Description:
By secondary structure, the chain is mainly beta. The chain has one helix at residues 9-16; strands at 24-26, 34-35, 39-40, 50-53, 57-64, 75-83, 87-107, 113-114, 128-131, 134-141, 145-150, 152-153, 156-157, 159-163, 166-169, 171-190, 196-202, 213-219, 223-228, 233-239. Strand 19 and strand 20 (233-239) form a beta hairpin.
Amino acid sequence: xxxxxxxxxxxxxxxxxxxxxxxxxxxxxxxxxxxxxxxxxxxxxxxxxxxxxxxxxxxxxxxxxxxxxxxxxxxxxxxxxxxxxxxxxxxxxxxxxxxxxxxxxxxxxxxxxxxxxxxxxxxxxxxxxxxxxxxxxxxxxxxxxxxxxxxxxxxxxxxxxxxxxxxxxxxxxxxxxxxxxxxxxxxxxxxxxxxxxxxxxxxxxxxxxxxxxxxxxxxxxxxxxxxxxxxxxxxxxxxxxxxxxxx
Length: 247
């Protein structure tokens, strides 16, 4: 959102920034260059999108070329999928070369409260966020470190502007990877209180040269194997079968 245009240029720039959105920043760069309060220079343009749906999943994939102005150029593609009408997988593919810092941001509503502050990346799966009766776990892979921010001003992070003239502190997570490109990072959104584990490994894609990840998601009542690429998602196996009754 945005709560003002001219009173505080630093906040105006923040509201327009990449880090104020649920996406990935590379080496701290913006997807599009921001000038002044309203101007934008070299703009990011969308790459080809794809989507699909069947009884077991629905997905959408897309990307942008805003980081191609970097040297060497970089592309960011994201695949979002809804598995078994139960949980979500968000997978980011960052193509290019050389070592880079990848920061993936997750912004939560101000009313979301968390069970505790994790001490490390490995404890993320044990943290549950709640808003009223709804709960959510975030289980990340491919990252090296994790930080939480709320209502911070130096630098600005952790704010939500629901309307003009109003801003609220809100929790923002930054998942960071120091990685050699090409690379893939991501997370599972698990909207249940039940324990869950996630494992990711690189695998072969049906299209030559296309990156692919195989995710194994396991809860107390089901095990899923999911192959994700920048253009497709396939539920390779699930036990028990999708939509089967659980005793």
